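Example 3.2
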Amino acid sequence: MPITPLHFPFAFGLSKTNKRLILPGVVVGSVIPDIEVPIMWVFFSSLPDHLFLHSLVGAVLVGTILAALVTWLLYPPIISALFRVSKDDLKEACTPSCMLVFSCLIGVLSHLLLDYPMHWFNPILWPWVNPYDIVGPLVLFFAPFGPINGTAFWMANYLTSAIMILAWLSILIYYFDKDLWRNHWLGYSSRSKN
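Structure, written as tokens:
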């Protein structure tokens, strides 16, 4: 589980694989599953903090709908206020559509894909398979160095986080002189928008 913002570079990269994908939807979808973590800590502390929204069922059914709503209603005003990106451009990009929902779905699934290799428990097939019965392959790779729920997990976590930090820095450097924030939060620059 890289910290939530470190899911951005993977989502950003995915959005570049198909020009029809809507970057705001992919980005919001990529972080939405982590909203369950504080809820689990506060209200269900006896359960794992990654459960329903980190399962395929919860991510696809609930995570995608939540991501679409957040992208449509909250993304434009928040990103506009924080990064001085045109609110009108953001609203246009975040208009409800089938492609926005599909982009949110891709983002939510990208979150699961990035988390899967580095957890010593995986709720990806919950409620049919106990999350403690599925160990991520990266954790298993590091298992010779220590327990899977300790050293192996942290090594997998640090490696994944380091890769995502390098990816984020690469994005920032590449887009620095290319209308950075429009590219970063909308997926296109003013020079390429028609």
